[in-house]
């Protein structure tokens, strides 16, 4: 077991290269099941969610060959099972994409219910609604999604009752090889949905409208392999933007798509942070005056991402005055607040809105990562706090951040992983 130890406050300097997007990578990896051919996927981040996805594919019989640190060849022609055991599938959220992919290719699946970060209830009723609309009978039985379409999956018109990233992705996977035209209304618009559609279209699919709230899928009997490069991770980029803003540093963030960061650069600009945008870079300029408090509301893309809620709270703790974060996506996303309070943060939560009394310096403490983005927030808090902060349960962080310790150390942070002696 390891923990992260940070000696703050930090003054960051230099440039950091953003890795491939976790939530695009896991969708594309499981989409290879529908392709039934050999695919080469590049710009995969070295994180445990990707490594587990590759392991799940191998366990299903796919042949996975590592070509470089970020590039893998995946041949799914050799898949021999439609089952993903709950012991493995339960370790991450995106494993449920196996269900949509197997229904599309085989008309049947038995997939362990997903795990993933705990933000309160994370139902999958919209995924089931989409599968049933396409002709599948779905049972949740003994911890498994047990589904089959005895007459094969068929095209359908699907209207989601709420905007769901996972539901939209699973509906695309379930529809991509069905006869006819499937239309998804009230679809999520995240960049990783566009990335998935682009990958599948490279494989011969016919998907239009990804990135809008209406997606049309003209099912294809067969797809073929392709070479594909995953987009950069907008949430990792946002996390480093906050690292620079909160520590008053100037850093260059490389390998980004500025359009994906617009809600974050816009909100941070409201505080007084200045940016210089390049084609694939973003310079976070050193602040020359005190920052201003702001109000944040999380929304589906292109709104301010819920996955930036915890990190943004750390910045708002550093800004004199009252700021608020209104979390509209998950009903229990504020589990990180108690950890920040251990560092002296003054945050009240009421009815999904965090009111932050900023300007009181955070103090180093022993804290833990309670989920992936909460863990990232603890790292940011350690960068700004006076003293040595230690962070336990860093496996959460390693699920979604490729080499965060090494990247921050290269930006001159005093940060390291420390082995925790087993207490016997
Ligand atoms: C994806 O989760 C991401 N995970 C999450 O990122 C992200 O926070 C979330 O989208 C929102 O952007 C992956 O892509 C692997 P949703 P997902 O379905 O798909 C409700 C991270 O940090 N809902 O868009 O599970 C749900 O309860 C992770 O990288 C239903 O009611 O999110 C929530 O309130 C954390 N029924 C809202 O919709 C359903 O069937 C949005 O959830 C599905 C969802």
List keywords for this structure.
424 residues, alpha/beta, UDP-n-acetylglucosamine1-carboxyvinyl-transferase, Chain, 2 domains, 4-stranded mixed beta sheet, binds ligand EPZ
Enumerate how many helices there are, as a single number: 14
Distance between the termini: 13 Å
Spans of at least 5 consecutive residues with low confidence: none
- CATH fold name of the largest domain: UDP-n-acetylglucosamine1-carboxyvinyl-transferase, Chain
The neighbouring-strand order within the major sheet is: 22-23-1-24
Proportion of β residues? 25-35%
Q: Main beta sheet, described? A: 4 strands, mixed
Structural commentary:
The protein is 32% helix and 25% strand. The chain contains 14 helices and 24 strands. Strands 22-23-1-24 form a four-stranded mixed β-sheet, covered by helices on one side. Helix 1 packs parallel to helix 4. It starts with a strand and ends in a 5-residue tail after the last strand. The structure holds ligand EPZ. Ligand EPZ is lined by residues 22-23, 26, 93-94, 117, 122-127, 162, 164-167, 188, 306-307, 329-330, 372-373, 400.
